[in-house]
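Kindly inspect both lines:
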Amino acid sequence: MAVIGMAARIPGVADLDAFWAALLAGRDLITRPASGGGYGAVADPHGFDPAFFGVAPRDALMLDPQNRVLLECAWEALEHAGYDPHTYPGAVGVYAGSGETDHLAALRSRRDRFPGVTDDQLRLAAGRDFLTQRVAHTLDLRGPAVTVHTGCSTSLVAVHLACQALLAGDCDMALAGGVTLRGTTDTGNGDDLLSPDGRCRPFDVDADGMVGADGAGIVVLKRLSDALEDGDHVDAVLRGSALSNDGSGKVSFTAPSVAGQVAAIRSAHLVAGVLPDTIGYVEAHGTGTAIGDAMEVRALSEAFGQPGPSQRCLLGSVKSNIGHSDTAAGVIGLIKVVLALRHGLVPGTAHFRRPHPHLDLTAGPFVVTGEATCWPEGDGPRRAGVNSTGVGGTNAHLVVEEAPAAPPPPDDDHCHLLPLSARTAAALAESAARLRARLERDPVALGDVAWTLQTGRAAFTHRAFVVGRSRDEAVRGLTALTGRPQDAVTSPAEAPHTAFLFPGEYGLHVGMARELYAHEPVFRAAVDACAVQAGADLGLDLRQMLYPEPGTEAEAETRLATPAVRQPALFAVQHALAELWGSRGVSPHSVLGHGLGAYAAAVCAGVLTRADALTLVLARGRLLDRLPESTVAAVPLPEADVLPMLTDGMAIAAVDGPQRCVVSGPTASVGPFLQRLDGPAADTARVQIASAAHSPLVDDILEEFADAVASVRPGPPRLPWISDRTGAQVTAHDAVDPAYWTGHLRHTVRFSDALRTLLAGPAGILLEVGPGHALGSLIRQHPDGGPGRTVVQSLPEAAERAGDAAASLRATGMLWQAGLPVHWPALHHGRRPGRVPLPTYPFQRERFTLDAPVPDAAHGSPGATEPGAGPESDGATAPRTPAEKAIAEVWRDVLQVRHVGIDDDFFELGGHSLHATRMLSRLGPVLGDEAPPLTVMDVFDHATIRELAALVSASAPPEGTGP
C-alpha cells in the first residue's frame, strides 16, 4: 500500500514541515502550566471553518471538537495527496477513531443554547460512533466508513483495516487515522501513570511516567500499483501489517503483554515478506512508563530474534516530543516514520541520556539515542516498524518501506496554467502566498504543480490563476495575487453560455500561433489537414507561409498579403483554434463570424464540413485575388452619415457598431474620401489589408463563386449561428440556400446588428477565436456590451509580441475563472504529469465554544457554489411576499444564519432532515390553517424559499423573477 497523503494537528507546531524540524532538533513541544505537570496541547482546538463544510453555526457548536478537527484533517490529507473527493471516480473509505470526552455532558449542561434540540440530536453531534460517517457524508465519500475503538492503538488499527479494505477491493483509496482532542491543558495531577514534571522520557533511566496530549493524524492510502499508474506522489510504502490481542495471559486488563505484541510483530514481518534484520528503525509505543517500555522492548527483542554481529536497529518514540495523544498516537508515529524515510534521517528521542536498566537492550539489536542519526542507504530499501498497543490488549504493528525512487521530471520549457480558488478573497490571497513560499523553497516541477492544482483541488467561487514557464515566473505572478485578491466569480449550476466569435481578415501575420502548432497536437492536426487540402489548389504549403524557415520570412509575408493565400491561412488557424478549444472542453452554445470568419463559424455550427468550408474559402480568395487594387478604411461615423459621402465604386463593407463603419472601394476613390473627413471622423484608420469583398467590385466574380457554392452540401445549423449578413439567427433555409452564400460575399457585413442579436441572448462568455482582439473591442464599444460579460481573446496581436502558448493558457484561465469547466488533461500533451504535495486550503476559522456567542457564517459544501448571504450581500434576492418572509424567518432561526435569500438552498445552508422536521413544525403555526400541510419530502423537492413559498401558495413562481 502506498502512503500518498498526510495531514496532522500536532502540539506545538503549525504543520508537518514544522513538526519534522522540531523532531530533528529534539524539541519538547509539551505545554507546562505553573501548577506542574504537562500536556501536549494543539493550537486553536476550538477553531473551525463551518462555512467551508456547509455546517450551520449552531450545528458546528454542537459538534464534538474532535469531529471538527478530523473533518479538516481529512480534507487537508486529500489535498496533500492531490485529489478532490468530488471528482475522484473511485470509492474512498474512511477508517478512524476518536478519544472519549465529556462534550455530551457539556452540551446537556448548556441546553439553553440549543432550544428545540432533542437529546438524540445532541448525542448525534457529540457521539464517537458517528465520527467517520460524518466525514464521509460531509465530503461525499462513497467507500466504507468504519469507526474504530481500540484505545491507544486505535489509529494504527484503523490503518491496518484500511489496508485490508484496499486489498479486498472495498475501496480504491482510503483515509485512516485518529483524533484525540480534549481541548484542555489539565495535566491530571495525582495520576501515578503521569510524569510529575510533565516530561516524557521513553527508555531513559529517569523515565517516571507519560504525559497526555491532544493530536490528530490522517494518512491517505492507495494500492501501490494504482498509485504508480496514476502518477501519485508516494511518500512511503506499507509492506505489511498485523493485529493481535493479549487475551487473558497478563496480570490485568490494562497491563501490556509480551506474547501479544510478539504475535503482532512477527505476523507483520511475515505478511510484509521481510526479515527483521532489514529493518533499521522501530517507532515504538514508548510511553515513558518503566513497566510498559520494558515489556515493549522485550517483545521487540523476542520478535526480532538474536541479532547478528553487525545488526543495529534504532528505537524511538514521538511521545518524548509531544506526549501520548491516545487514539491518534499510532498514526502520528507512522507520520514520523514516513518523514524519516523521506529524509534519510532518524530523529533522536528527546530527553534520552542513558537507557533504563530494566530494558535489557543487549538482548536485541536496538539502540536508543538522543540525537538525530543519518540513515544511510543499504543494499535494499530503508525499512521501519511502527508498534502500537491499546488498553485492553489490541496490538498493531506496521512494516513501512521507503518509496520507490521517482523518475526525474522531464525537461520542460512549456508554459503552465496554475489555477487557484477559495471560498473567500482572504483565503485566496493566503493560498497564493502559501504556494509562492512552496515554489520559492523547493525545486518542484512546474508541470506537476499545475496538474495537481488543476485536478486535485475543488473549484470554489473566488478564482485566480497564474501562467508561467518557470518557477520564477510563477512566483512573480503569485506575489502579485497575494496583494491583489480576486473578485468572486459565482459559478452557475450549469456551464455559462459561451459564444465563439471568428474575426475577419485582420490580424494574420507570419508566425501566428507558431507555439501552438509546435506543442498542441490537436491544433497541429487541424492546420495540417487544411494545408494538405489547400496545397493542391494553391501549389504551395500553407504551413511554410505561416511558419517559414529562417531566411524565408519576407517571401512568406508577401504571399500572405494576397487574398488567395491569406484567407485559407486564416481559416486554417481559426478552425484549428476551435478544435483546440473543443479538446479543452470549451464548446460554443452559439457562433458568430465577421466576414471571412463566417466560414469557420459555419463549421462550428455544423452547417459546413471543414473540407467544404475550405473549398469555398479557397475559391473566395482566388477570385478576390483577380480583382483590381482596392482600399479598406474604418470610419468612426454612423452608417447614415457615411452613405451620402460615398462616390462611384465605393460601398460600406461592414457596419461594426452604431458609430463605426468600414468602407471599401477603388484606391482612387477611397483616398479623396478620407481627405474630405474632418472633426471626429478624422480619427480614421486605414485598414492594413486590401480586400474587395462586400463591395460592388465583386459583382464580376459572383457567378464563378456561385459555381463553387454549388459544389458543397451545407446542412441546417446544429446550434445558433448569428448571421453577419442579416444580423439575425441563420435559419435552416438560409443555411442551405446557395443564394445566401453568394450574397454573403457581396453584401454589407451587419456585424453591429449581429452583435445586438447575440448580446440580447444568454451569452455570458464571448471568446474571440482568431488573432488579436478586434471583435472584443467592438463588443466593449457596443451599446449592448455592458458589464457582466467575459470577453476573452485566444491569441495576441502581432504587435504585442506575447507568446502564443502563454496567451492561450491565459485565455483558458479566464474561461475557468468565469465558471467554465476545463478538460485539464488537454493541457498536458507530450508529458505525463504527476501529483506533488502542495500547500492545502487555508481554513478561515472561527471560535466555537459553549461560553461564547455563536459566530455567524455563510455556508455551502466544499466545491459547491456559494449561496448568497442576504439582500445586502452578493445580490441575493430578499423575501418579498408574506409567505417568503415567514419561511425566511423560520429558516434563520432553525439554521442560525443571519441572512437568507429566496434562492438559497436549504441544504447548502447547512440544513439536513432533522432541521427540515424542526423547520416544518415551526412553519405550520406561522403560515396558518389555510396553508397546505408540508412534509420533509416537500422540502427536499422544493429546497429554496421561492419554491417552497410557491408550493404553499399553490402557484408557480412569478415569471421573470428567476435567479
